[in-house]
Design brief:
The protein has 17 helices and 14 strands. The chain is α+β, with helices and mostly antiparallel strands and 574 residues long. This is Spermatosis associated 13.
Length: 574
């Protein structure tokens, strides 16, 4: 807890009341873009949803349910990959039964046949926890035919109640989320901007990203949700159209999620100094924010965009096909799942372009445009023999990116050094599979061969692989390249010019003064042994792992073997 004197170091007593330019006290009510105040206050939220805003409230509620004998289930927001037997591994979307929640960071749960600890921040509790017990007792109604009508009526009422529960959770969490965004913008950002001696403009952009744009967007979204919310009969609410109407706007989360790891790093550096720790705690107290550290508040947008598909999936489950909102909810679920996929794909691409930029810097004699000018992902790499019309063969290492195929030659003595030898525009060529035997056009005997034929000129490239399986991989890779280009066009997948320039600049700085030679991606640190905290079960892990995956849906593409191939081709480690 920050001492009263330390808070006074940053603001005088008068600053507890934010003063507007005309001398009046600034209202803390949420105001929409048309200037009208929203019809709920912080106090209203506390009264209506005490456990959403009270620290430890959700934990207390879970333990109450478990102690009463209820089955409590949660759905995974992210993949949790672990090599520790004490931890429970799962994929995004998996259902975990929560068995104990006495620790705020790590819960004890069951997934399939295993019980172990898992990070609480990786899951979202299901709204309708009574579903399993209802299903188990459903056979009783079948045994008594005279009560069939009554049971159907009760089932319908139960379905309505379950839909009401999900609708209310969506509305309540949305209102609380707006409160958190408001606190970040007014409690942290506004005060940081006043202290120019502590924060540069660049630092604030790194820490907070575009969260102010998210706040503005979410206020509009919530305003439309409120219009579609049926307060008297919540199960009749038709909110699917709101998600469809704003689905393009949710794309702004991509920038925030991509920026979030950098924000954590910048914040971590500042928090090493006591004055910054005291400053941010003073901001929290003055804004009367709940007892969560600033990094927890900054994680809320990442968590929020991941929760939407889960909430909509549960809402769809309790929306009958006859319901007027069924089709819109179904479309909204798919739309928000696609938004999450796109955000995850952009994040993956940003990580990929950094590696590709470092790879280009390591190539000797690079000519022409940077690889990132047209490409953002490596699809396949390996050795092929390039054959000319005169029968001359050249052993080359090829790297197939989206839109282009780059040819390199290995140094005879230092096999980790590559020399640039040219590239082929994949948008301008057609793939031709060749049978083993004599090629009629070139009058040459070929084996495991294929051609890339230019669509605009008479240029033809002939390649031979060492083995049949190598040829098959290259043919599949070329098809994958064309498919991915189409998918990128359909998804609107683009990396900004600034991000490309930044990646190349960082790669050039990192490679300055080093000898040429490419290497694999950095090796992950070894798994750290967790210090024990003596509890009922096996030891509780003491630190919550960093979220690695932002999307909910399974990735559409398998991980590239590019960097694995690099490691195999690199006998010398720098």
């Amino acid at each position: 807890m920050v001492a009263r004197g330390e808070i006074a170091r940053f603001w005088s007593l008068e600053s507890l009341h934010m003063v507007s330019s005309d001398g009046g006290t600034e209202s803390t009510a949420l105001v929409d873009d048309n200037g009208s105040e929203e019809d709920y206050s912080y106090e209203d939220l506390c009264q209506a949803n005490p456990r959403y805003l009270q620290p430890g409230g959700e934990q207390l509620a879970i333990n109450e349910l478990i102690s009463d004998g209820s089955v409590v289930c949660a759905e995974a927001l992210w993949d949790h990959v672990t090599m520790d037997d004490q931890e429970l591994g799962f994929k995004a979307g998996d259902v975990i039964q929560v068995l104990e929640a006495s620790n705020k960071d790590w819960w004890w749960g069951r997934n399939e046949d295993k019980e172990a600890w898992f990070p609480a921040s990786f899951v979202r509790l299901r709204v309708n926890q009574e579903e399993l017990s209802e299903n188990s007792s459903s056979t009783q109604g079948e045994e008594q035919e005279e009560d069939a009508g009554k049971n159907r009526h009760k089932h319908l009422e139960s379905k309505h109640q379950m839909r009401t529960n999900v609708i209310q959770e969506i509305m309540n969490t949305e209102r609380v989320y707006i409160k958190h965004l408001k606190d970040i913008c007014e409690g942290y950002i506004r005060q940081c901007r006043k202290h120019t001696g502590m924060f540069t403009v660049a630092q604030l952009a790194t820490i907070f990203g575009n969260i102010e744009d998210i706040y503005k967007f979410q206020r509009k979204f919530l305003k439309d949700l409120e219009k579609q919310y049926n307060k008297e009969e919540p199960h009749l609410s038709e909110i699917g159209s709101c998600f469809l109407q704003h689905q393009e706007g949710f794309a702004i989360y991509s920038e925030y999620c991509n920026n979030h790891p950098g924000a954590c790093a910048e914040l971590s550096n500042l928090m090493k100094q006591g004055r910054y720790r005291h400053f941010f705690e003073a901001c929290r107290l003055l804004q009367q924010m709940i007892d969560i550290a600033i990094d927890g508040f900054l994680l809320t947008p990442v968590q929020k965009i991941c929760k939407y598909p889960l909430q909509l999936a549960e809402l769809l489950k309790y929306t009958t096909p006859e319901h007027s909102d069924y089709n819109n909810i179904k479309a909204a679920y798919e739309a928000m799942k696609n938004v999450a996929c796109l955000i995850n794909e952009r994040k993956r691409r940003l990580e990929s372009i950094d590696k590709i930029a470092r790879w280009q810097v390591s190539i000797v004699g690079w000519e022409g445009l940077d690889i990132l000018d047209r490409s953002s992902e490596l699809i396949h790499s390996g050795e092929l023999t390039k054959v000319t019309r005169h029968g001359k063969s050249q052993q080359r290492t090829f790297f197939l990116f989206d839109h282009q195929l780059v040819s390199c030659k290995k140094d005879l003595l230092r096999r980790d050094v590559l020399y640039y030898r040219g590239r082929t525009d994949m948008d301008d060529v057609e793939l031709v599979d060749l049978e083993d035997g004599r090629d009629k056009d070139w009058n040459l005997s070929v084996k495991n061969a294929f051609k890339l034929v230019s669509k605009s000129t008479d240029e033809v490239h002939l390649f031979c692989a060492r083995k049949q399986e190598d040829k098959v991989r290259w043919l599949q890779a070329c098809e994958d390249e064309r498919r991915r280009v189409r998918e990128d066009r359909e998804m609107g997948m683009e990396i900004s010019e600034n991000q490309k320039k930044l990646a190349m600049l960082n790669a050039q700085k990192a490679g300055h003064g080093k000898s040429k030679g490419y290497s694999g991606c950095p090796v992950a640190p070894p798994h750290q042994n967790l210090h024990p905290l003596h509890q009922r079960h096996v030891t509780v892990p003491t630190s919550v792992p960093q979220q690695q995956v932002f999307a909910l849906a399974e990735p559409k593409r398998k991980p590239s073997l590019f960097w694995h191939t690099f490691n195999k081709l690199t006998p010398f480690k720098k």
